[in-house]
């Protein structure tokens, strides 16, 4: 593989953020940021093996039928790749075992959780142990959220960050674990990388609207134990420039780069340092 950071963004069947995600990858320094329709992967024309950083974009996979990303999860888990003995999930498994990076945003996070790719406690990659379900308020939420970063988390994407301010837009963002034991394991291992918080990024909160969906323990995103697989409901790709900020015309000290870009910069740096 040449010395290029190669990101892939999977599109199709209802994603709607793939261009923004590819743009964020490029802005963060990835030399390649290909938007690939899932059908291309299933046809065997594009292989995950040729990339370092897999992005699962937001949107409305299969119209949220059966619950958001549920049908998409089955597709990725069980669909065969044409012309090979493999399923797409085999390529994905290899991608993970090769030490590469995966980030799922919103619908992409829902997809990772429903496939069992996250949190994958004990390395069990196909067992679902958490979910993202209907917002506590019973309606779609479209607002900006403050996220407190856990400084002790192994998450590669949030390394060195204290907090980020990002937009959310979802109907099914309430994080729920299947048991108190799962929730405790997530917390003990610091896999709950980002939580909805107050505007100073100090205290996780269950108060609406700071916590827009009633997520357990205010969880907005989680990673696996390696820190290389990460999913979150808020959209980092939607805040990569100061003009994306909702009050950019009134707040004069906003830096040129948006806070969401930091997550992609961490990813690109990790690839350069570890995978090239
Ligand atoms: N923006 C998104 O990715 C939305 C995810 C999903 N369709 C939901 O409403 O929860």
TrEMBL record:
Q: Please provide an example of a Pfam family that matches this protein in its UniProt record.
A: GATase_5
Q: Name the SUPFAM superfamilies on file.
A: Class I glutamine amidotransferase-like
Keywords associated with the record: ATP-binding, Cytoplasm, Glutamine amidotransferase, Hydrolase, Ligase, Nucleotide-binding, Purine biosynthesis
Q: What is this protein called?
A: Phosphoribosylformylglycinamidine synthase
**What is the protein's species of origin?**
Desulfuromonas versatilis
What gene codes for this chain?
purQ
